[in-house]
Design brief:
Bound molecules: 3-methylbut-3-enyl trihydrogen diphosphate, magnesium ion
Number of helices: 14
Order of helices and strands: HHHHEEHHHHHHHHHH
Strand content: under 5%
Shape: globular
Length: 296
């Protein structure tokens, strides 16, 4: 039987060691900027996007080394998004990953710059490392997938809509579209990048996209549920803030039971995409279940 805990622990160790390699690389004049970048990366986090990237690479028969650098680039982008998401002008949160948020620890200006630098570093990593390990066409494809998922067609637009939807009555359809952008896009991209770097065929990449898009949506529904009834100690971030800020969430729109059922429905749909991979997809199956059942 597949042991998810051991898998996660083992891969997190590899990912963390690799992330460390990419921090401070060739910095001619280290400042608080570098400290803040390291602080937010090393604060912890589940490393879910890199894990999904590695597992998708595995599903198409690729090797871990093929996608480790791109997996790290995805975590840099994710961490940048958290640093900016927590800023006073955005969600104004004080704790993240069990520690003071980046702007609480380093000040707002440094936190903004640390986010900028993490985002930029991700593309430096992709440019260098991906070009070394992948065929040029695959490398270019990966960079385009990540850029699209991170920017105005993906996460940043989702963050904009998240703010615009505050204190506004939105339908589940609108909310779900916003979830797909702010959270789903990068998760879907993580799976696709793993598949491309692992040498997957177009059919395999399409099948994994079905998985990634549904699991990405399920992830945000679970995040909304945890904000309502999770344990702040376990989560490492505050709970109840969505309600306090009258944010439109899966819970405010569907209710607790409705949101729970929706997460399960999305997972089921997502797992349908994995049928073609047989037991090569066991890590993806287990990670998908973990996304909806997790307590942090
Ligand atoms: C939280 O992401 C932010 C969302 C996109 C909803 P994670 O729950 O993956 O955060 P970390 O990386 O484990 O801290
Ligand atoms: C965070 O969404 C999404 C991104 C950072 C792109 P939320 O604001 O809902 O997530 P948490 O609860 O702060 O982690
Ligand atoms: Mg937010
Ligand atoms: Mg937030």
């Amino acid at each position: 039987v597949f042991k998810l805990d051991a898998y996660i622990e083992d891969k997190q160790r590899v990912i963390n060691a690799h992330l460390d390699r990419f921090l401070d690389r060739g910095t001619p004049y280290p400042t608080a900027l570098n400290e803040a970048m390291r602080y937010s990366i090393e604060a912890g986090g589940k490393r879910l996007r890199p894990l999904l990237c590695l597992a998708a690479c595995e599903a198409v028969g690729g090797k871990e080394a093929d996608c480790l650098a791109s997996a790290c680039a995805l975590e840099f982008i994710h961490t940048y998004s958290l640093v900016h998401d927590d800023l006073p002008a955005m969600d104004d949160d004080d704790t993240r990953r069990g520690k003071p948020t980046c702007h609480k620890a380093f000040g707002e200006a440094t936190a903004i710059l640390a986010g900028d630098a993490l985002l930029t570093a991700a593309f430096e990593i992709l440019g260098h490392e991906v070009a070394e390990t992948a065929a040029p066409a695959a490398a270019a494809k990966v960079i385009a997938i990540v850029a699209k998922a991170a920017g105005a067609s993906g996460m940043v637009q989702g963050q904009m809509l998240d703010l615009l939807f505050e204190k506004k009555a939105v339908s589940w359809k609108e909310l779900s579209m916003m979830h797909g952008l702010k959270t789903g896009a990068l998760i879907e991209a993580s799976v696709k990048v793993g598949a491309v770097m692992g040498g997957g065929t177009d059919e395999q990449i399409d099948a994994l996209t079905v998985y990634g898009s549904h699991v990405g949506l399920a992830f945000q529904v679970a995040d909304d549920l945890l904000n309502e009834r999770g344990d702040p100690e376990l989560l490492g971030k505050p709970v109840g803030s969505d309600k306090a800020m009258s944010k439109a969430t899966a819970v405010s729109t569907l209710g607790l039971d409705g949101a729970t059922m929706e997460a399960m429905r999305l997972l089921r749909k997502g797992l349908e995409g994995l049928a073609v991979f047989g037991n090569r997809a066991e890590a993806l199956i287990a990670l998908g279940k973990y996304v909806v059942e997790r307590r942090h």
